[in-house]
Amino acid sequence: MIYKSIQPRRISVLIVSTILTGSILIVQESQSQTLSQSPANKISQSESKESESQKPITEAIRQRGYIGVGGSIGLSGNTSALGTGGFSLFSKTVFTDNLSMHNNTVIFGTGISSSSSNLTVDFPIRDASSQQIIVSPFIGGGVMFRNENGLKIAPHVTGGVDVPISRNIMGTVQLNVGLPSDRKADMGLLLGVGYSF
Predict the structure, then answer these.
(1) 59-114: per-residue pLDDT in tens?
(2) Are residues 70 and 90 in the same domain?
(3) Are residues 68 and 137 in the same domain?
(4) To 10 degrees, the CA torsion angle through 34, 38, 41, 42?
(5) Any residues with CB less than 8 A from the CB of 152 and at least 6 apart, and which?
(6) 84 close to 50: Cβ distance less than 8 angstroms
(7) How many domains does the chain have?
(8) Same domain membership, residue 170 and residue 128
(9) If residue 53 lies in a helix (H) or strand (E), which one and from where to where?
(10) Is there a contact between 107 and 94 (Cβ–Cβ < 8 Å)?
C-alpha cells in the first residue's frame, strides 16, 4: 500500500516539474526573442549599417602623385630656360594629404636648363557628395639648380593648381619663379599633363 501511494505522487511531481520547466524555457525563449527585436537593438543594427555605408573609399579621395610633360612659357628673366621658356618635365611626390614635393626641369629652351625642387602645402577641394578631389591648389618654395660655369643654386617659389582629368590623368598649371642673387628673377608659366599613380 505504501508503494502504491508513493508512486502517483512522484509521477505527479515529475509532471508538475516538467510543466514548470517547460514553461520557464518557453518564457526565457520568448524573452530572448523580444530582446533581439527590441527598438534599441534595431537602432544599433541600423546605425552599424549606416556607418558601413558611409565609410570613405580611401583610394578614391587621397592625393596622388604624378609624372608628366608640358611646356614652360617664359615670362621674365633670361638667366635660365625658366625665364626664356622651353620643354618641361615635372613630377609630384605626395607625403600627406596636405604636403607634397613638386619637381620641375626646363630644357631645350634658348636659356640654360634649370631644375627646381619645391616643398609645397596643398589645399585639396573635394566634391561634397563623392569626396573626390576636383582641384588641388598648392604653394611652396625650394631651390633652383642651373649649370652655369658650375652648379648654381638659387631660391625658388612656386604656386599653382592640380586638376584631375580622369583616374590616371592629371592636368597642372604652375607659376615658377627663380630668384638668383646676382640677376633678375626668372619667371615661367608651366602648362602640362601627367600620369597619376
Answers:
(1) 446 889 999 999 999 999 988 899 999 999 999 999 999 999 999 999 987 788 99
(2) yes
(3) yes
(4) 120
(5) 145, 146, 180
(6) no
(7) 2
(8) yes
(9) helix 39-53
(10) no
Distances (CA, A) of 180 to 60, 79, 146, 155, 185: 40, 8, 10, 7, 6
pTM surpassing 0.90? no
Contact 17, 25 (CB under 8 A): no
Are 36 and 122 within one domain?
no
The boundaries of the domain holding residue 37 are: 2-53
At 63 the three-state DSSP class reads coil
- Residues facing residue 170 across a β-bridge: 164, 194
If asked whether residues 152 and 127 sit together in one domain, one would say yes
CB 76 within 8 A of CB 187: yes
Joined grid coordinates for residue 21: 520547466
27-68 pLDDT, tens digit per residue, is 444 444 544 455 555 555 555 555 555 544 444 468 899 999
**Of 92, 103, 114, whose CA–CA distance to 162 is shortest?**
92
Q: Show Cβ contacts of residue 130 under 8 Å, excluding neighbours closer than 6 positions.
A: 60
Q: What is the CATH number of the domain that holds 171?
A: 2.40.160.20
Pick from 10, 33, 53: which residue ends a domain?
A: 53
Q: How many helices (H) and strands (E) does the chain have?
A: 4, 9
What does the block give as the cell for 190? 608651366
